[in-house]
Amino acid sequence: MSVAKTVAALRSPAMNPILALASCALLAACASQPKEPDQAMPASQLDLGAFSVSLVVKDLAASREFYGKLGFEPAGGDPAQNWQVLRNGDCVIGLFQGFIPKNTLTFNPGWTQQKLPRTQFTDVRELQAKLEAAGMSFDVKADPATDGTAYFMLTDPDGNPILFDQHVPKPK
């Protein structure tokens, strides 16, 4: 499909708005992530970590087959527990059957797009403090007194959940 046809399809009224948002965010994240595990982000940007889209699916096997045709391959998860992580290069999607209520944008501070730990990154609690100082509201907050794994959630103005889920300890 040509770029023009792809853009036209994304702009069509029939296009699911969250799919359009997720597609744009996924493309931007895949293009903007640091290539080296310890490459620092410019000071003007928030270092959000690895990016993926977590999708609610009705049939995990059917969804895995569909995304497989788009070049995505299994990269983690547990199909026996109704969830699977798929990867196509630096692009990552999670398929969740019965786990999450809505499609969710997910950021993983401390990880590269290849799920490699980074020694230099912005801790999830520091991200939360910066966003709180900027006036953001949270659905779930990380405990700032901890230094292990943590997460927080917020919702964008259109009702899309955004998860910041750090699986590695706070950098030293």
How would you describe what is shown here?
The protein is of the alpha/beta class and 172 residues long. It has one domain: 2,3-Dihydroxybiphenyl 1,2-Dioxygenase, domain 1. The protein is 26% helix and 24% strand. The chain has four helices and seven strands; from the N terminus they run H-H-E-H-E-E-E-E-H-E-E. The protein has helices at 3-11, 17-32, 60-69, 124-133, and strands at 50-56, 73-78, 83-88, 91-96, 104-108, 150-155, 161-166. Strands 2-3-4-1-5-7-6 form a seven-stranded mixed β-sheet. Strand 6 (150-155) and strand 7 (161-166) form a beta hairpin. Mean pLDDT is 82; it is low at 1-35.
Widest beta sheet: strand line-up: 2-3-4-1-5-7-6
Overall pLDDT score: 82
Low-confidence stretches: 1-35
- When the domains are counted, the total is 1
The total of helices stands at 4
CATH architecture: Roll
Oligomer: single chain
The rough form would be described as globular
Gyration radius (Cα, Å) is: 16 Å
Q: How would you concisely characterize the structure shown here?
A:
The protein is α/β, with parallel strands linked by helices and 172 residues long. It has helices at 3-11, 17-32, 60-69, 124-133; strands at 50-56, 73-78, 83-88, 91-96, 104-108, 150-155, 161-166.
